[in-house]
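[job 4417] fold queue: 2 targets
>>> target A
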Amino acid sequence: QVQLVESGGGLVQAGGSLRLNCAASGRTFSSYTMGWFRQAPGKEREFVAAIRSRDGSTAYTNSVKGRFTISRDNAKNTAYLQMNSLKPEDTAVYYCAASSTWTFSAYEYSYWGQGTQVTVSS
């Protein structure tokens, strides 16, 4: 069982930066793929980024490549999403999630945080 708690969301102007944190409970954090997803009002939840457990390989959706960076600190049981050059279209509730497989599909993530709001003003 893994419990996830996000923090770090907020209101920022376009072009600004935020870092989201995802603190995990449990001693098996290092064995999970960690992913970040987001959901804007009236839209489906979409994949943002993922980081593999074994080798730290990363993957991003095209719209955030070059602006967002996912990372993890297994010693601290924490995953991060550094978001730079934010745009109004990045406004959404951001969720971190854990999966036992390397996947970009929300359906294959077993554990989810409660979400944190990110609002980017123009």
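>>> target B
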Amino acid sequence: QVQLVESGGGLVQPGGSLRLSCAASGFSLDYYAMGWFRQAPGKERESVACIGSLDGGTYYSDSVEGRFTISRDNAKNTVYLQMNSLEPEDTAVYYCATGFWRSGQCGTGLAETWGQGTQVTVSL
């Protein structure tokens, strides 16, 4: 069964850090571009960061550039999102997905398989 499982979400104070993990099962991530997306209440799902399959080229949204880092460990079949300097505006459910983006690109329209999401809440 093809599955993506996110973990690492939680409650953190503004300025804090979290690392999200996305573990794949039932298939190998080696040949897939991977992405992190988020959806806040009442808002559309938006791109956060994506990473290419071959050259590892990355994309970051303007709102997270310089604060978040996407990485992948193909040996562990896992993708990570390191989130630093978190802000209340980062509060959302975070999803990982496989997709067909070219290196340096991202977007929900080309996403294929989604995880179930993990809640991130940034608050005092």
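[job 4417] complete. Note on B: The first strand starts at residue 3 and ends at 7.
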